[in-house]
Amino acid sequence: MKCRVLAVIPARGGSKRLPRKNILPIDGHPMIAYTIIAANESQLITDCIVSTEDKKIENIAKHHSKKLLGIDLIEKTVDRQYRYNFSWMGRPIIQYPQDILAMQEIIWEVKPDLIIETGIAHGGSLIFFASMLTLLESCGEIENGQVLGIDID
How far apart are CA 69 and CA 96, in angstroms? Predict the structure, then answer.
């Protein structure tokens, strides 16, 4: 069985620490493009999700991706401000419930052995991903699911 690796790239348009950071140019390209290109060029990553509510980031993701899942995981009618109103198993999670539901469906369909998430804050989404992989293991869909979180803070 071939190992499936899912890369999750959350890319919100409204960063509070550095506004519009995902589209800021670095050496002539938007910052988010480097992450997407690296995921696409990786010999290990089989699937990539860019989760965004921002049209410019969406266009950048579509332009730089060979295969891209779940580009529009957020309902267009939802307020776009980050809120720490949600948690997963006691850890704050900076995702809306509809994001979590969509990710659950994507994880079940892809059945990745490894999930890589960039841009973690408090670990809630990492625990969510780990619990989804544990569910896949208990159903016999994968053997040894792992989660890797990467942040640049």
Answer: 18
The β-bridge partners of 10 are 51
Separation between Cα atoms, residue 15 and residue 97, nearest integer Å: 19
pLDDT at 30: 93
In sign, the C-alpha dihedral spanning 113, 109, 80, 39 is: positive
By the 10 Å C-beta count (0-12 exposed, 13-18 middle, 19+ buried), 128 is classed as buried
3-class state of residue 39 by DSSP:
helix
Taking only Cα atoms into account, the Rg of the chain, rounded to an integer number of angstroms, comes to 15
What are the tens digits of pLDDT across the range 52-65? 778 898 899 888 87
Residue 129: closest CA among 23, 3, 6: 6
pLDDT tens digit sequence for 28-52: 999 999 999 998 888 888 888 887 7
CA distances from 110 to 5, 23, 65, 70 (A): 9, 28, 17, 12
